[in-house]
Amino acid sequence: MERARYVDSLCHPSQSMSRTTQDEREPWPSTWESPSVRPRRPMRSSDSGIDVSTNPASFLQIGPGTRIRYVGPGEDDRDAANVVADCPVPSDCPVYCFEVEILCQGSSGLIGVGFATRNVEVNVLPGWAEGSYGYHGDDGNIFRGSGQGTPFGPEFITGDVISCIWCKVRQTISFAKNGVDLGVAFRNVRERKLYPTIGLRTFNEEAVANFGAKPFLCKPPKELLAEIREEAYLEMGSVPIPAPSGSPDMLLGDLVKDYLLHSGFPATARAIAPADGPSSVLESDAAALAAIQSAVLAGDADRAEELLASHLPDILGEEPNISFRLKCQRFMEMSKPGNEADAISYGMEHLSEASAQHPMGKEILSDAAMVLAFPDSPDACELRASYRWQLVSAIVSCLQIRAGRPPCSPLERLVRHAKLVWRELGMGMDPLLSPGEDAHLQRS
């Protein structure tokens, strides 16, 4: 029961986390957009050899409502044309569906349905161009940003209804035919904004879309989301949760104390949360760490190196990140008016080769050069201070790793997790976590 309540609390965030009001929510796709406002390219050559820009808008007749009909020449693949919906799928919609009924397959049934980004060229069927995903009726193949198809499902003809489902939670696009699920066609669909799309290529092809104005033949998005939510509950419920070891105030105190230790403030950590058990590695090295931190923050790189060599004799030889940052810090501290020659000499001797071995070497050297060029500028003073703190953080993280602990504190990890969850809420995850709020779900 305790685990169930914990999972339920995770899955029912407070109303304050519902970021948008009804007025702020994004519109839903409701009709087809005119292709005349989207990019096109020269596709065919005239008898004189001069390229002529075809206008795919003239190949498609849109309306009434969500009907679309092909009226172009339909001679070859260069005569293909597609449209997208008037709006992308709302960013906070976790599972979206639209359906296309084939009213007439035309002469060849070269009809494609799926999803695409806004800037996909008009002169192609869905899936042929980068940023688009399509399922084609003439051969049952699926296409993803390429003219090379992959066998997927059955062909579709006049009278068939094709359902297109984009599940942002699973990052998949799947299809159904006449209400029968055909399975997942595309995985790792990472685009943030996709539009429903349909493409036609041969004469008299005609279709009509259902964007949710009437019930879908396939399983409704709300039911699909319920299944996904149940899977999430089962997965979360399978994770063992340790019993609480103390009051919330004790937990908060431990989080703050650990953060202060990670950040190099052992004295403050002891003041707000006195140790009542075995000391951590950081606490046992508190005096040495405090002295090293004091030297670094005071800009005394020589003293900091001396203390490191005394208390942690192997760290400079075994930790190239610490060694490189300490050298850069010494260079920045040397970059003062009247001392430019010594700073340049030191940099040429110690930094040029070392920077090539460091993942951020070029960026750090660029900042160091700026400090040398403008030593008294506000930016230079700010950079010196910033890199001092970065060096302290690197030393503390190194000590943590050596002690078999994570390089950052639990409080920092908690904040990072919170930021990630908040970002996911804007990627269609919100209704997954808030089953009582259906305003983000598609009506059908």
Automatic annotation (TrEMBL):
Region annotated Disordered, chain positions: 1-57
Annotated Pfam families: CTLH, SPRY
UniProt xrefs under InterPro entries: B30.2/SPRY, B30.2/SPRY_sf, ConA-like_dom_sf, CRA_dom, CTLH/CRA, CTLH_C, SPRY_dom, Ubq-SigPath_Reg
B30.2/SPRY domain boundaries: 18-216
Biased composition (Polar residues): 47-57
Origin: domain of life: Eukaryota
Alphabetized PROSITE patterns for the sequence: B302_SPRY (PS50188), CTLH (PS50897)
Annotated ranges, domain CTLH: 292-342
The protein's name in its UniProt record: Ran-binding protein 10
Taxonomy of the source species: Eukaryota, Viridiplantae, Chlorophyta, core chlorophytes, Chlorodendrophyceae
